[in-house]
Amino acid sequence: EADAGEYTCDTGDQQTTAAVLVKALPVLFKHWLKNEEVEEGCTAMLHCELTKPSAPVEWRKGDTVLQPSDKYEIRQEGTRVELFIYDAEAQDA
């Protein structure tokens, strides 16, 4: 999108101008989440991979949006997105 705009080729005597439009591709999943089974008190880790690096994502449990805390750690490096659930308890299922 930063490359969109008008470009001009100028010879000094003449010039020609064209517009460039960049269509953003949707963010898709390359690797989907997989079910995770973890023992009580341990750490569960969920991860997926996207088609675009640094795309904005939101982690949810049911309808609740998860925020980073002592319980949840959210990491995103390039196209890989991870959620760590620390000290897993029965209500984390």
Automatic annotation (TrEMBL):
Major location category of this protein: cytoplasm
A Gene Ontology term for the protein's cellular component: cytoplasm
The compartments listed are:
Cytoplasm
Which InterPro entries is this protein grouped with?
Ig-like_dom, Ig-like_dom_sf, Ig-like_fold, Ig_I-set, Obscurin/Obscurin-like_Reg
Q: Where is the Ig-like domain?
A: 26-93
Q: Which Pfam families match?
A: I-set
PROSITE patterns named in the record: IG_LIKE
The UniProt keywords, alphabetically, are: Cytoplasm, Disulfide bond, Phosphoprotein
Q: What is this protein called?
A: OBSCN protein
| Species | Cochlearius cochlearius
Gene that specifies this protein: Obscn_11
